Amino acid sequence: MHMSRSALIVSIILIYAGNVRGQSPGGAVDWRARLNGELPLLGHRNWIAVVDSAYPLQTSAGIETVETGSDHLDVVRMVLDQIGKAKHVRPVIFTDAELAAVPERDATGVTAYREALSKVLGARETQSLPHEEIIVKLDEAGKTFHILVLKTNLTIPYTSVFIRLDCGYWSAEQEQRLREKMPK
């Protein structure tokens, strides 16, 4: 009886640990439900990253990785749609600078991916930075703020889309005007 009670306790701990890291005991959790549940809690300085399958599992305390098992562009589209419906945040989008230089001969499908991503992003302003710079930004932000990493099944390098959330109802221009009016 003592052994089965210990085994039960260990099982509960393992199940809890798996759910905390974004995984259920049977595999991928419902990432859509996770996104919809977390988005109202997220605000400016939080990040959502939609990453390819080789993206590393980062260890900063605030970074949560969820395996989606889903198509990369479908995840990007859904994340941007959900952010677009939220009044409290707006997306600041970053992509890897290396993506523009990845040749088709080395990564079959990259040309079609670039074209499809361009359509998904539409007229949204996008900043392109070297991949390592973005990783450093996420790592640093993860020390203080929550970052949701949604890992997809894509196997083309430098295709991750990083979204830093900014305030949806207060712009940088409004903040600057406020700061200028405040006594120094």
Kindly state the number of beta strands.
8
Mean pLDDT: 87
Q: Write down the CATH class.
A: Alpha Beta
The appropriate CATH architecture is 3-Layer(aba) Sandwich
Overall geometry:
globular
- Residue share in β-strands: 15-25%
Note the total helix count: 6
Question: Rounded to an integer, what's the Rg over CA atoms?
Answer: 19 Å
Low-confidence stretches: 7-27
Largest sheet: 6 strands, mixed
How far apart lie the N and C ends? 70 Å
Enter the CATH topology name: RbsD-like fold
What keyword list fits this structure?
184 residues, alpha/beta, RbsD-like fold, 6-stranded mixed beta sheet, two-stranded antiparallel ribbon, 6 helices, globular
Characterization of the model:
This protein is an alpha/beta fold and 184 residues long. The protein has one domain (30-181): RbsD-like fold (3-Layer(aba) Sandwich). Helices cover 40% and strands 21% of the residues. A hairpin with a 2-residue loop joins strand 1 and strand 2 (27-28). It is globular. It starts with a helix and ends with a helix. Mean pLDDT is 87; it is low at 7-27.
Structural topology:
Blueprint: H1 2-20, E1 23-24, E2 27-28, H2 31-38, E3 47-51, E4 63-67, H3 72-85, E5 89-96, H4 110-121, E6 126-129, H5 131-141, E7 147-151, E8 161-167, H6 172-181
Parallel strand pairs: 3-7, 4-7, 5-6
Antiparallel strand pairs: 1-2, 3-8, 5-8
Helix pairs in contact: 3-4
